Amino acid sequence: MLEIIRNTNIDFMGKRKFAFVFSGILSIIGIIAIIQVANGRANLGIDFAGGTAIQLKFTQPVELHAVRKALEEGGIKDFDLQDFPAVNKVLIRVKKSEQQLGKSADIITGIISQKLPNNQYVVDSTTEIGPKVGGRLRADAAQAVGLMTVGILIYIAIRFKLNFAVGATIATFHDVLAVLGIFFLLGREINLILITALLTIAGYSLTDTVVVFDRIRENLKARLKDPVETVMNSSINEVLSRTIVTSFTVLLTSIALFFFGGEVIHDFSLAMIMGVIVGTYSSIFVASPVVLLWRGKKPLGKK
Amino acid sequence: MKKNILWRILFIGFTILIAVVFFLPNTPLFKYMPEWWKKSMPNKGIILGLDLQGGLHLVFEVEGDKAVETSTDRYVYLIKDMLTKKKIQAEVKRNGLNVEISPSSPEIASAVKDGYPILDTVSSGQALVLKISDKEATRMKDSAVDQALETIRNRIDQFGVSEPTIHRQGDNEIVVQLPGVKDPKRAIELVGRTAQLEFKLVDDESPIAAQLPQAVQPGDEEKVLAQAADKIPDGDEILFEKKVNRETGAAIKIPILLKKQAALTGNLLSEAKVSLDSRFSEPYVSISFNAEGAKLFDEVTAANVKKRLAIILDNTIYSAPVIQERISGGNAQITGSFSMEEAKDLSIVLKAGALPAPLKMLQNVTVGPSLGEDSIQAGTMAGIIGTVAVIIFMIIYYKLSGVVADLALVLNIVLLFGAMASLNATLTLPGIAGVILAIGMAVDSNVLMFERIRDELRTGKTPRSAVDSGYHKAFWTIFDAHVTTLIAAAVLFQFGTGPIKGFAVTLSLGVLINLYTALIGTKTVFDLINSRRDVKKLSI
Description:
The structure holds two protein chains of two kinds. By secondary structure, chain A is an alpha+beta fold. Chain A has ten helices and four strands. Chain A has helices at residues 16-38, 46-49, 64-73, 104-115, 131-159, 162-185, 192-222, 228-260, 266-285, 287-294; strands at residues 51-58, 79-84, 89-95, 121-129. In chain A, strands 2-3-1-4 form a four-stranded antiparallel beta sheet. The longest helix of chain A is centred in the C-terminal third of the chain and has 33 residues, at 228-260. Chain A is elongated, with a radius of gyration of 24 Å. Chain A starts with 15 loop residues before the first helix and ends in a 9-residue tail after the last helix. Chain B folds into three domains: 2-47 and 369-532, Multidrug efflux transporter AcrB transmembrane fold (Up-down Bundle); 65-136, Hypothetical Protein Ta0175, Chain: A, domain 2; 193-366, Gyrase A, domain 2, CATH 3.30.1360.200. Chain B is built from 15 helices and 19 strands. Chain B has helices spanning 2-23, 35-40, 50-53, 64-85, 106-115, 134-159, 184-192, 207-211, 221-228, 291-303, 340-352, 369-422, 429-458, 463-495, 498-532, and strands at residues 47-48, 55-62, 91-95, 98-102, 119-123, 128-132, 165-169, 173-179, 197-201, 236-244, 251-259, 264-265, 269-276, 283-289, 309-313, 316-319, 331-334, 359-367, 426-427. Chain B has a six-stranded mixed beta sheet. Chain B has a four-stranded antiparallel beta sheet with strand order 7-8-2-18. The interface between A and B is large, with 73 and 77 residues. Strand 4 of chain A pairs antiparallel with strand 18 of chain B, so a sheet runs across the interface.
């Protein structure tokens, strides 16, 4: 039997103070990120903020500063660039363009053709989003997160007890906040794809938590005399290897996506990688301690 | 027991067969299938999303207020006409969406009320202010969206796009999806232009006409309009003709004073086709009016010989030729230095008819075919590498049982593609990510079971009872874990746009199929191993 971890006896619950501080910081960063997003001070993707994005595929390697200079000379303001040197691609994003939709993309390609005449290109993709759609997508995203929370709470409350539901929901929220916070700190774009990743992370991190909770519930029934904290600790230790192995396989595929999946889902894969790691951490260090904290006076064993 | 296993194996084999049949159209093999197969067996398979095959996703808002505005204009004209006939002196004009009649009198009020019950009185006093009733305005806006939808459909049909999707969204929006379009700019132009064709008489008699500048540079139109604003006679307007120099390609704009009221409009057309000018071999569009239009055209030309008649499309004058003689055939030409494509598109939009109101573009996502190919390649690459990594890891960690899990994984992938093909689901790039993530999650169930079996083996159980109780105990954990992912996928499906919906579909299908392969597939293999002989040791 090949085992990464065997018969561990780590006092996870005893480290909950440290975990709470660490997770608290992560969550606060996440909350700050949400406030900044709501106030439009974060690096919002054009799908939320409105604007134009064009991805160009050049025939020869292209210098980012040459593109920047060309666009500045062409009078384009408030744009940012991202390049994918391996495939000679450049992504140009112009936010909140005043131009009528349908025009700004033409203007940008016109400038590039004129200023960089020696480097042929094809337009890989053009995305133009008006302010109305941006606002609606923001509202939809907020609604989706709300729905998700309610769904999780209800399901876990049905299958477990309410304290478990609260623990699972807090752990899930923690993961979403942490990844959002890290993206915000890194100055990465917050867009529809990231929200998709966050919701997927929420669903997946819950999987890990459920595995742990399941074992706790089982052990609580069997070991009525032991203190809850001890039962939780040994349950986490018992399922530690499967928690890590299941996360590891998803991590493997996320990493494959990150390195080989192409530029369009690059950030999605990055978020997934972070989410899987944070989700594993939270199902061990956050979810159960929260249940312990929340348990009140009633015994946890019965359902 | 043995019979039971055989049935399960047959059942699994059967599902694989069905999956393959459904997925066949997506493989090159489908070409070599006999005709009857292509006709009567599943032949559609998985559809590639716009982001993978390239194409356009457009969202337009129908500016319904403009349709109401146009309608209000018509009532202004009708009321004016009625008052003139009744020999009542009053000024009638449109202000926003209101009709203003001043000075008002009880006589006017009752005449309007009788003649146009559709108009609601906003205020009366010095001036009578009316507007189209809210109910009627709502109906107009609504029907404008329906008409626009129909018109766009006609245009796209004639333009020739395979499998376009055109549908209404919400109150006043239209979504147009055009897969595989090579020239996005042209398609956007074709869908989005109003194509309101009008014939208006040129007002050369007014002294203002002579005072207008000969020609201005494009962009200076506003200036001309501002200068002439208060001098334009009542019932007239200024529009511009665009002239392009054949040699230099430089464009100039010629202001022309016109009668505001159109003598004839494009809704009376019966035919529009591209013809070639014999002198410059330049394409133009020749149009024919229907009977009513031809009669009107005949009357207008007869009454206005030696005057100029401007041909106007979407408020741009294409030409303003002098009427040499009465034209009775009901045929006319629209010239304007078109390229062949432009002329063809113009004929299409004229034939399909004008949009009842202008469209405002809200969203445009255009994906070139090369990006789609790159994405498919990258996705396939990531999928293969991810799968191989997981397969190798499982074999190293769980040995022979790992091989069983890997078989289940492969079964999972086959069934996932089969299920997607059977639903004719749309595969998008995030959808590919969903497939790959589902592969990573697919082995989760097996890991949960294997770890349980290991637990049971540690307590000293025989392999057979360890497998049975391991499965039994892991079942609800696996079930709960999958449901949580399904909740996430359901929310994503609810909220997402096209590509994200694709992700939700593949993820949820992946999770469901995973339940099947883990609970039926892997278990069958283990039962098979256990039933052969008395297994002493399980390779796990």
